[in-house]
Structure prediction request, 29 residues.
Amino acid sequence: MDLLMGNYYLAFTNESLSMAHFHDIVMIN
Prediction:
């Protein structure tokens, strides 16, 4: 269960960081 939650957390965090980076690129351009 902990491993599953860990993987979910990592996936969610990675998605959030990707969206934030994409937003920064759009704002710069």
